[in-house]
Amino acid sequence: MSVLFTSISAFTDESPRRNNPVKPGDAEAVIEPLGLRIDPAESSDFHTLLAAIHDCAEGVAALPDYQPAPDQTKYPRENVRRPSKEEQVFGQAWAHKFLIRGNQRGGVLAGKSVSLKDVIAVAGVPQLLGSDIIPSWTPSTDATVVTRLLEAGADIHGTSTCENYCHSTSSYTSAQGTVENPHATGYSAGGSTSGGAALVSAGLVDITIGGDQGGSIRVPASLCGCVGLKPTYGRVPFTGISSGDAVNDHAGPLARSTFEIAACLDVISGYDGIDDRSLGSAKPGSTSFALNLSQSSRRLEGVKIGLLKEGFEHNAVSSSVRHAVLTAAKKFEDLGATIEEVSLPDHLHGPAIWTIQQRIAGAQTLLGQNTGRRGLYMSEMERARLPWTNEGFQRAFPSTKNVIINGLYLMSRFPDLYGKTVNIGRQLSDKYQTLFEKYDVLVMPTTPVVAPKNGKRGLPLESLKPSMGLTINTAVFNVTGHPAISIPIGFAPAKEDEGVMLPVGMQVVGGLWQEEKILRAAHAWESHFDWKKMHCSTELN
Q1: 380 Cβ contact partners less than 8 Å away, ≥ 6 residues apart
Q2: Which of 135, 138, 185, 263 lies deepest, with the highest CB count within 10 Å?
């Protein structure tokens, strides 16, 4: 009997395949951890049904997978390797080195060098995920963003280190090693797009593509002194990128200028026919963010800017960062913009809402239980990392262990909570949208402090402490989906040493699908002011 194209009778056939491994009692064993029992009178029937679904599953498992086939003839992967000690920079910024030459006919990004966060699939390149829980796995396809970068003429030089399973905004959690801040050894480069931010900041690549599920583009951009954009949710397809929570998944660029960010966004955005997150995005190639910036006056007459009170006055924001960002924001007035303080108390609920979403969905993803989206599933990776073993769990960084523990606890004790956070997140998004009816953009610090000292792996609280609080102004916009860009606006002293000056990031947030407004404001600011000459007084720390 075929198990591929069959009627419901397949599930009532009393003669499953003879080699079927399902044994009497297996149905009971499956539900026993849930505290559930099968009526003895029904046991035989459920055994038959379980054996039938096993036959069905084996038939589907034997079918070939369906993944986009990359053109490796046009875009061959040259010299794929783990970098030698001599090739490494800033500790362990590179995950793998290689070269894929972009379209030889040229394009929008011709001559640009790119690195990719090590969660973005590149066919034939092992992916480490910043972890040693499992051996590296090797994708057979390219992420959509990879294909689009190459078609636009960019050269891809490698994958850059990401933090352990992307579960940290620090830069010392990767199993491959610590990434150092380019401005001061011993200080965090931010995470989880740690290696890429360091490479961009130091001028070793022009652009990095990162993933952002709570601040993982904007936090390292802020700490390293580069520009990082989290686009509107769905603007850039997430196809071929490892997911945490599909509700919070965003991909976007880091670069040294807003114009480079705009040019890259033109290339990588637009629905790809695969990822349902990007169904609402414009047709690929139809945006003109870079062109509009090049033609703008670099003045901001008529633009209304709101300084978000709660983003500045949170007790985690250091006085030096608050002063630096306020000083920078007030310079918008010199460009013709109108500035007002604005308040949205619910902004402060953002971190808690995000935390619940990430713990529950993150645990489901790690355990292979996150379903329900139309897109490209990374089936090769799932086979490599599942099922979990205690040995693998013990190697996991404490943040990953914590996601699993927290997620399972929340699902067992608060069964409605994930859905409620999605509902409240939509309400919060609506409240921001109301503000954007009056203001073109909102401004606040990206991170509450400059780069902290790199931590070290120890007991869980010690391991997690250096990351705590860094996303108070970033994670909320992963919940709401609003576009947000971080630009460097000066330096402030390190908490541990006032003689060490480190970059400060200013976050500019816009209405849904209003990237043009935040790009225009950021571009105008950086066109008139040199952030590298702006130093906050150490007396404020």
Answers
A1: 65, 137, 138, 139, 140
A2: 263
d(CA 267, CA 139): 23
Please answer whether residues 223 and 505 qualify as being in contact, where contact means their C-beta atoms are separated by less than 8 angstroms. Answer: yes
338: containing domain: 78-351+420-540
Is 216 tagged catalytic?
A: yes
Residue 496 lies in a domain: yes
From the candidates 113, 174, 192, 463, which is the catalytic residue?
A: 192
pLDDT score, position 69: 94
Hey, which residues does 78 pair with through a beta bridge? 99
Tell me which DSSP letter residue 283 carries: P
Residues 173 and 229 in one domain: yes
- When divided into structural domains, the chain yields a total of 2
Q: Are residues 24 and 117 in the same domain?
A: no
Q: What is the pLDDT of residues 482-500, one digit of tens each?
A: 999 999 999 999 998 999 9
Tell me the chain's radius of gyration from C-alpha atoms. Answer: 24
CATH number at residue 248: 3.90.1300.10
Q: What would the pLDDT profile of 117-134 be if each residue is shown by its tens digit?
A: 999 999 999 999 999 998
Q: What is the pTM of this model?
A: 0.95
Choosing from 115, 170, 194, 216, the catalytic residue is 216
453 is known as an active-site residue: no
Rounded to a whole number, what is the largest CA-CA distance in the chain? 81
Whether 117 is catalytic is yes
User: What type of residue sits at position 227?
Assistant: V
**Mean pLDDT, residues 4-20 taken together:** 54
CA-nearest of 355, 358, 356, 373 to 165 is 358
Interior/surface letters 301-320, b for 16+ CB within 10 angstroms, e for the rest: eebebbbbebbbebeebbeb
CA distances for 22 relative to 12, 30, 48, 386, 388, angstroms? 15, 11, 9, 20, 21
For residues 522 and 487, the answer to whether their CB atoms sit within 8 Å is yes
